Known about the structure:
- The chain is of the alpha+beta class.
- The protein has 16 helices and four strands.
- It folds into three domains: 3-109, no CATH class; 112-209, Alpha-Beta Complex (Creatine Amidinohydrolase), CATH 3.90.230.10; 272-401, no CATH class.
- 58% of the residues lie in helices and 6% in strands.
- The two termini are 59 Å apart.
Amino acid sequence: MQTGTVQIVKELVRDAAHPLTGSGADYDSLLEFVGDARFVLLGEGTHGTHEFYRQRAQITKRLIEEKGFTAVAVEADWPDAYRVNRYVRAESNDRDAAEALSGFKRFPAWMWRNADVLDFIEPYVKPGVTTDELDRRCHDFIVEHGAIPAPLNYKGFPRSICTSINEVVCHGIPGPRVLRDGDIINIDITTILEGYFGDTSEMFFVGEVSDAAKKLVDVTRRSMWLGIKEVTAGNRIGDIGAAIHETVEATASLMLIVAFATAFAFYLTWEGIPQELLRLLLGRIGEPLLVLLILNLVLLVAGMFLDTVSAMIILVPIIHPIAVRVGIDPVHIGLIVVLNLTIGGVTPPVGLLMYLSNAIIGCTVGEFTRAAWPFLVALLVVLMLVILFPALSLTIPNALFG
């Protein structure tokens, strides 16, 4: 094919292609195109590797759930299908259709992934379902696909999967326990196929769960991936645990800081401290610009010792009423708060963000200071411009929102 023709074909494909992002809306346009059709052919473009079949399964699921499809005819293009084709043409030695189809009792190994069991069971993880039912469904799915549930009868373990709910850390035994709205459950799948073991697990939310549960799962997942990142040549097994431990410990420390900051902010508000500061500042200092400079100094110092969220929780309830009383626009003071806390966080020698950055990239305070000072100077210049010329921060918001 000529180079020019190839380029034209590439451009046509690029214009017509619909990129997959992994979001639930990937196939919205396809479902709209289907409309009221009662037959849909997923053609050769959906064949190939395991990933292709995964996408085909997602499309099929949506056709069933959203379009009311009740039957799926699958084109079987692996070697066992040829045997059926020969039977249909009366060219085989199979005595009947059941014998011709007997090869399909074994799922082709090249299409198997242990995580497929998790994809299969996800729709059944909902309030009112027992963990015994989840175990039964997973067991049947694993066996039907030619694999063996590894936990079953291993040192007396009585089930095919592990289900660990809420405070159960791992290896919970399925039973009559009914899933309730708000539960979190880890389903651990271990299978054997052709002598190879595969082990995977996933945490599922049952109905609507609390924010605390979501954060727990999120931190745990991120810790896991940081641990996996340490699985490289030359590293030790202990490096995996260390990465996980450091992530969890750092997250817990920040959460404690935020918790204490929230409590402290509540105490200040309860005791009327913001009102007292407001009275003191307005009684001694009536000039808005001078008040603004004092607030900047407080914010800059706070940014050095507190993380941004904690500092905002503590200081914004105090600063906002003061700024409003002296005529400072809320948008203007909001930008000043963010800039000051950001600058304070990276200012040597005690900036909290600086120390976190140094811990991640492995540099000293001196190295950080030498590299960061031009940017700090630039940030301070920007801060002074924002303080002295409010229009820089207010022109666009005023134009958009009036």
